[in-house]
Amino acid sequence: MVVASLNRLVAEEKLGALATLVEGPEIGAKAVIEHDAGFVAGELPAEIAGDVLADARALMDEEQNRTLQYGERSVFIETVAPPPHLVVFGAVHIAQPLSTMAKQLGFHITISDARGAFTTPERFPDADRVLVG
Predict the structure, then answer these.
(1) 106 FRET partner, CA 20 to 30 A, in 9, 15, 20, 63?
(2) Where are the chain's structural domains?
(3) What average pLDDT does the chain have?
């Protein structure tokens, strides 16, 4: 259930986190947290769940990862963020290698230009969207 929930977060490009108990009696316990919905899979000890949720949301807002201490327990909170977007205005020659490099770095790419002859999917195969207008 945890893996399926993480896969769904990534596929739907939602902001979330994976909280893993790395020290304490329940070591290895995991929970998937959606920023807006809260816990969606897995389970953490009830006495720390509220604090973990609040801390996870704060870390998600900053797209940070951290190990935090809750009494005798330590929880590693790993943010799962949607990919950043890059919008390139102008389908000029430098936009082609720029879009390729940005795609390799994990960006979603949008190319926009008013000139339809230059703004084609064939010229920008790495772009997620090619807009004319």
Answers:
(1) 20
(2) 2-80, 85-132
(3) 96
